[in-house]
Structures are given as structure tokens and as C-alpha cells.
Design goal:
- By secondary structure, the protein is α/β, with parallel strands linked by helices.
- The chain has two domains: about 130 residues, Rossmann fold (3-Layer(aba) Sandwich); about 100 residues, OB fold (Dihydrolipoamide Acetyltransferase, E2P), CATH 2.40.50.
- It is built from seven helices and 15 strands.
- The strands form four sheets. The protein has a five-stranded parallel sheet with strand order 2-1-3-4-5, sandwiched between helices.
- Strand 8 and strand 9 form a beta hairpin.
Length: about 240
Amino acid sequence: MQKLRCLAIDDEPLALELLEDNIRQVPFLELAASCHDAFEAMDIMHQETIDLLFLDVQMPGITGVQFLKSLQMPTSPTVIFITAYEQFAIEGFELNVVDYLLKPVAFERFLKAANKAYDLQKLRQSATTSEIPTHFFVNANYALVKIRFDEIMYIEGLKDYVKIYLNSAKHPIITRMTLKGIEQKLPNQQFMRVHKSFIISSDKIQSIRNLKIQIGEATIPVGEQYVEDFMKMIGENQ
């Protein structure tokens, strides 16, 4: 498994320096960034992939507890609280933090918490790998071609063939298959049939105007029989 990318947050310079040093000593941790307050942490988390937060509880402006409650990330990082105050322990565990460290933190105790976070990440990755497929294969150009779900922008049906448009390729993958057949291979939480000739990836939608979907340079119409389901998908049908 890859190293856990860590963000260290503490308003005390000496405590932050010690935390950074502890992270650097652990082989499976990588210090992605460090900062002194929650506002700076928010900016970093919108720019960096963070797997593990080492989060001070008592900080000026926004506390660690308030910051953690405010997070609305697609994938929430694992969190370890670090504080000088025992009274936040119960609230921390109610927020599903993986561990709670009291300052001053001995390295042995820090390592124990890091191991817990690493084991939890392995369990999450194992569950994701075993339960959710990430790709499928199609026959194209006399070969089996791997198609990753997260690279699909949209799929166009042409009688007995389909064109699969990927964000990683200039030209579509053309394979002998019906649109209904390929629809059965796609996770329905990510893909949707919006027309008799088109399936789209919902997270690739750039804009919608007059029931026409813009994905990249393509404008895809929403068929009349698909309008109701499409509106529900985008949250417009209340």
C-alpha cells in the first residue's frame, strides 16, 4: 500500500515541529503539508490529496472539532486528534477519530496511533477493491482493451456498435456491442442513459441548458422518455 499522505495542524510552533518530525520518522507516513489553523488547512485540502489528519483540538478561530464537523469532502480523511485536554476525548470518538493523543506525545504512543490509521486504510482499500469494480474490457482493434469507469465521459450507440469516449484518449474506442449490453456493465450510481443513443458519466457533466448536456466538446440531448429520471439525478425534481 502507498504511504499515507498526512496534514499536520497545530497552532503551537514547537508542537507542530515535533509532529512533523514524528511523521517523517514513520516509513509509511508522508508529510504532505502542515499549517497553524483550520482556515489554511481548508485551502490545503482542496489542493492536496490527504489520507490522514493530525489535528489539534484547541486552536484560535475554529477549533479542531468545529473544523472536523465542517468537512464536506468526497472522501473524508482519517483523523487523529492531538490535544492537551482530556475532556474532548468523548466528542472525538463520537466523530469517529481513529485515536486521541494527549500532549506531550511520546513517539511510541504516536507510532501506535499511526499504525491504527494505517491498518484502517488497508481495510478500506481492501473493501473497495473487493466490492467495487473499477474497469471492464471490450474487444477493439483485435485486442481486449481495458476501460476504466473514471475515464469514461460518455458512450454513443450506433446500432450494433458503441463509441466509448474517454478523457484519456483523442479518439473513441469502438467496439461491437449494443448500448443496452454496455449499460449492464456500468455502475448505475455513476452512469445514466439519457437518450436512446447516449449514456453519460454524471460527474463529467459541465453544464445543462434546455435539456442539452455539455460534456467536453460534445452536446448531448436528453430524450423525452429519460427527462424525469435525469431531473431526479441532478436534483432538480423536488
